[in-house]
């Protein structure tokens, strides 16, 4: 995701196709030494979610964006 500066708080929210919040991850503060954040395919109860379409919302101190992703195993 573009638009993030070097040290920011980052929240990642993952929603399923019906709009239900599946998982939330917070990174505080997040350094951009790597531009990758990995989701292990689990919900907030650490249960594996099925393959399918999800929406990932990234929020930082100054930036918000939502992308559609396909989760495959």
Please tell me about this protein's structure:
With 73 residues, the chain is an all-beta fold. Helix content is 0%, strand content 51%. The chain has a 4-stranded antiparallel β-sheet with strand order 2-1-3-4, with no helix packed on it. The model has no long low-confidence stretch (mean pLDDT 85).
In short:
By secondary structure, the chain is mainly beta.
Topology:
Blueprint: E1 7-16, E2 21-31, E3 52-59, E4 64-71
Antiparallel strand pairs: 1-2, 1-3, 3-4
Within the largest sheet, what's the order of strands? 2-1-3-4
Helix content: under 10%
Question: DSSP helix count?
Answer: 0
The stretches of 5 or more residues where confidence is low (pLDDT under 50) are: none
Q: What's the total number of strands?
A: 4
Strand content: over 45%
Element-by-element helix/strand order? EEEE
Rounded to the nearest angstrom, the distance between the terminal CA atoms is 22 Å
How does the helix and strand content classify structurally? mainly beta
Q: Major β-sheet, in short?
A: 4 strands, antiparallel
Shape: globular
Radius of gyration: 12 Å
Mean pLDDT across the residues is 85
């Amino acid at each position: 995701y573009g638009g993030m500066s070097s040290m920011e708080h980052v929240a990642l929210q993952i929603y399923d196709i019906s709009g239900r919040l599946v998982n939330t991850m917070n990174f505080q503060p997040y350094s951009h030494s790597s531009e990758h954040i990995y989701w292990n395919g689990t919900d907030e109860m650490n249960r594996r979610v099925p393959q399918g379409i999800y929406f990932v919302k990234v929020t930082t101190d100054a930036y918000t964006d939502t992308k559609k992703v396909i989760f495959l195993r």
